[in-house]
Write a structure and sequence with these properties.
Length: 88
Amino acid sequence: MGITEVIDALERDFFLAGFYKAFALGAGHCQLCPECTLKDCRNPRIFRPSMEGCGIDVYSTVRNNGYLIEVLKDLSDTMNIFSLVLIE
C-alpha cells in the first residue's frame, strides 16, 4: 500500500467518524500511474494534491511539528515522506 492509499483511508476513516471536512494532502508528484496524462486522471477518486502544490512550506511544517527533514544530497539518501490529513 502506497502513501496515497494510506492517506485516502485515513481521510475516509475521519469522515466516517463524523469529521466531514477531512481533507488529505500528499507529498510530491502523484505516483498512482506510471505515466500521467495530466488531462484525464485515471484515479480521480484517490488522487490527492500535494502539500507543496497547495503552497504549504513542507520543510517548516514538518520541523515545527518536531520531525526531522533534510534536503537529500544524493538519490541514494534515505527519504522521509510526509503527508497531511486536515480535520476540523
